[in-house]
UniProtKB/TrEMBL annotation:
Residues 45-443 form the Nitrogenase/oxidoreductase component domain. GO terms for biological process: protein-containing complex assembly. This is Nitrogenase iron-molybdenum cofactor biosynthesis protein NifE. It comes from Mesorhizobium australicum (strain HAMBI 3006 / LMG 24608 / WSM2073). Pathway: Cofactor biosynthesis; Fe-Mo cofactor biosynthesis.
Amino acid sequence: MTALSAKIQDVFDEPACDKNRGKDAKARKEGCARPLTPGAAAGGCAFDGAKIVLQPITDVAHLVHAPLACEGNSWDNRGAASSGPTLWRTSFTTDLTEFDVVMGRGERKLFKAIRQITETYAPAAVFVYSTCVTALIGDDIEAVCKRAAEKFGLAVVPVNAPGLAGSKNLGNKLAAEALLDHVIGTVEPDDAGPYDINILGEFNLCGEFWLVKPLLDRLGIRVRACIPGDARYRDVASGHSARAAMVVCSTALITLARKMEERWGIPFFEGSFYGISDTSEALRRIAKLLVRKGADPEILDRAETLIAEQEAVAWKKLEAYRPRLQGKRVLLNTGGVKSWSVVHALMEIGMEIVGTSVKKSTPEDKVRIQQMLKDDNHMFEQMSARDLYAILSGGKADIMLSGGRTQFVALKAKTPWLDINQERQHPYAGYDGMVELVRQIDLAIHNPIWRQVRERPPWDCQPDGKHQLPSANNDTATTRAVQNFAATTRTISAVEEIL
């Protein structure tokens, strides 16, 4: 069995996953990843999943050992933010050609690329990503990385997650394995304390973790490592010294949390910073874990004081939106932690949940949704664009919250839409983030453009359905403009029918 196959079987057999524990030994080895459709791996392969988890480590050079297209298709595909280094925004690739593949020059070219990056940028480390092409031709990136680390005196980390290995979620887990094998535990901090924690699965999209970190700072809690959002290599390498951990996106990094607990005794829990109640509960559980690991119990009282203060401020701000959003119906087409945390957040202000996707949710996520919605019919594993369109065009939802892939379904149905996935432009975490989320929903629903686009055009309001154009006695320019607009409208309608 190859090293990659062994890693894949190891992460598939995940004892921290209730769904996995209920399977027999053979089913556990097969894992939960769905096979990829040929030609449809963009944004969904293991390589892309590994880049998602590791690229937000900001002072590291991320080198993709592949033909140019692999790096071109994966670079900067998420809105993570950095408070300092910008090296992670620079795209590095070995740019293999057919000649390199045929002549077996891949490993030599990789070593030269590492040397050039080291001499030019002096990074804290270099992460080298294997891809489908280099895995198929058998380039030994681990041997090259080991030799380069000895030669240049810095960490060179092999990330063995080629796209052909499986899905994006599998790539998340393989990236975590690379951190466990080569990074975490390699640096001993000289300032470890009883209030150090790790945050796992937080990507700092739109800088939203910066809305949460000040709350932890006020409690005297230090984030030793936020993996991967706005992280530094040295912080990740010393993450084993933390006293507790919170997992934000369990489907991505549950294996990392479980193995860190086994190796270094770091207890963890799964929580969310989306919504007022969930943010408060996360702060409470962090404080309790730290007390369990030896911190002063007075942190519990300080946490409750902070929670009461922040909740009062947030609810006061939200009261202005409650009359405008009470009873509004929401359809969520997302997954993972947002499938339940955003549901809870919106229900807090009186909005009605029409349905929520649980495609990437854990069994624990689904249990939480069932407890909140009291009806399994509001959950769906996967809904086609046709079904989403039927719900929206039928007026069963006032707004859809989803990622960019389904925004055009909402626009075609002339229904307000808000991005809550990685492409979003606003941070929604923490108390202030919840206020911002509600504000954006209010702006979207009450935007006057939706009333206008739903109205029939004036030339299409006759009982017989014929277009009513101005008479010949009217201004010629006006008549021509209306005729052109009518023609454009008919063209758009024809295109919509095709789509």
